[in-house]
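>> received
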Amino acid sequence: MTTGLSLSLGRARRNNRNPPPPFDPLTVTAVTEWYRNSTVGALSTYPALINPGSPGIPGPAGAGHFPTGNADFSVTFDGGDDIRIPLAAPNNGTTVWGWWGWLKPSLSAQHTLYNAQASSGASATKARIDIMTNGLIQLVSAGPSGAAASSAGAFVANVAKFLLIEFNGARAAGQRFKFFVDSVDVTASDSTPAALNAPTGNSELGAQDAGGGGTSYIGVLGRSSGFLGSAAEAGSTVGILTTASRAGLRTVDPLV
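>> returned
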């Protein structure tokens, strides 16, 4: 870890309204971004602790698509909200990539949790993650081709669970894309290639595209979330992380 990174993280933490959690996500070498909300009410920014100059941007200005920060700093999406994640190396991995966070989905319809486009058109999508009404999580499309899905019932309506998405192109075919819920591997199928597309624009958390709408996420996102990338952890035998790191990240700002 560089001195500059440590100083930036320190400043970000001092500006946070609550102290940092006991487990530090930056002890996990594969964590390349950590977002931690510090707003109650309509979000105007989604702070990034590793790269403070590149926070997430909630909803188009004036369009009313802003998620709401709750008293515990978790974030509620109403189906018309989104957070635009600026294009950056920490969230743009092609052979090692992932996402982590606590979720409490409504399961009232098929909802998009995350979408990253390589260019216009679904055929060029890097990854779109949907949560289905039966609690199944699916990778709808992975550029240049491929898909993945969990078993049904991985999520239950309005019940908080911790999701880890891990893609490691170096793994054997059928073992590259993994869904972990509460640290348990719930992956049922995987046909992803050894490398994903690299988006050329912002990705969207909680929506299919900027401005929300359509099948955008309805539910709660925990206070902390982030991306995985760079390289798989030393000692990892499945996905990107070790068992210990999965358990540790699950303790960061848990959602109830």
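>> Confidence is low (pLDDT under 50) at residues 1-16.
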